[in-house]
Design a protein that fits this description.
This protein has 213 residues and is an alpha+beta fold. The protein has eight helices and four strands; from the N terminus they run βαβααααααββα. It has helices at residues 17-32, 44-48, 57-63, 70-83, 85-101, 108-117, 134-148, 180-194, and strands at residues 6-12, 35-41, 156-160, 166-170. A hairpin with a 5-residue loop joins β3 (156-160) and β4 (166-170). This is DsbA family protein. InterPro entries: Rv2466c-like, Thioredoxin-like_sf.
Amino acid sequence: MTVERVTADFWFDPACPWAWMTSRWMLEVEKVRPVDVRWHVMSLGVLNEDKLDELPEEFREAMAPGGWIWAPVRVCVAAEQRFGAEALGRLYTALGTRFHNQDQPRTRETIVAALADAGLPADLVEAADTDEYDKLLRASHKEGIEKVGQDVGTPIISVPGPDGTEVAFFGPVVTPAPKGDAAARLWDGTLLVASTPGFYEIKRTRTVGPIFD
């Protein structure tokens, strides 16, 4: 029997460690379920630009125009525009590995190294310091946010509901990223709640930070 493949749309900011954890789970899901992940960018800078006064100073500086939050996601948009969605996924893995697993500084040099890891040209880093791709970035961000509403962060995941229409959620927020059968079970559960009319939220206080393995 042929099993129909499913597409899961995933919005991320490469700077977010929680989105990184969820994205690694989705790569595991691709191995154990007939699922293809389609990557999209969103932006913590855009998400928080009207709330900068409410943030701690260290985050306020990072998310303000010109802060380091903007550079990697701008380069991601540039890579997708020049080389396609598959290149975006490769670059996300390269950036996330260096930012999160290896705790490398969020600098231009790290981005250039990640571009090399992803087999992409170093000149893409020039997008980091300009607003050339910001219109496209904002459009992608808006697309994800409009599926779930304003009271969320990154990541956003959109999955097929029981009647084929998409259902989107913030999260799931999980650490460490489930693997193998555990990844499959979480995916199955995600589809289950997506099939429940009126389901909105399950949440508890995080007591453990991201565990990168």
